[in-house]
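Appendix B. One record, verbatim.
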Amino acid sequence: MLSPRVVKLGGNDLDRPGWLAACARALVRLGPVVVVHGGGRAISGLCRRLGLTVEQRDGLRVTTPEVAEVVELVLAGPVNRQVVAALRAAGLDAVGLSGVDGGLLVACTAAGGLGMVGEIAQVRASLLERLLLAGLTPVIAPMAPAAEGGLPLNVNADAAAAAIAGALHAAELLLVSDVAGVHVDGVLRPTLAAGDVEALIDAGAATEGMAAKLRAAAAALRAGARAVRIGDVRLLEDPGAGTRLVAPAPAPAPAPQPA
């Protein structure tokens, strides 16, 4: 049975060719892997050039229909090609996809007045499994159509990676960016209980992008991923690097009652 890893590569670092190449070389040694990428910096840059407002709330982009068009153009276009090219140069047989391709992802509109922002409602895991069995490395741009059609919704890449990891019952979800892990009071935490995520966010210990990562990590564990870590490129080489999210222990089974 396949036991792939799902790796999300942070969008703010993808314009650093050296960083992306280092990630690609490390991914070669991980075994079966599905890659999900962001692209936030590139999206914001094009929005500004087009005179569109760039606004984020709690680490999520406010997405008007015009911004949704930019998201699709950037993520499924140059950013996806850039990641695929780096992986192929490192020796992986990478193939680029968006969440629209093959009905891979289906989303519903997220609450909170963010506009055309989606939450993943369905993952076609069988498509990814077939690609992995064929020796391919799927590289996914995180946008997803709603069931009723129309422009694809903008989906936070951490949340998309979490949904995919849960659907695949992934051996591990690795949320890779430029931070070493989750810091609380200035100290890197090697482990963190998933049940503490909302309290940390409420206390202001995790904000913006890190809050989105922590919520995605907890959602992945609930959905079926076996392990989740947050950190930098060292996650791909060192099994002890970063911050590991720990799922709550299952409740003990009730003792049998005497007959």
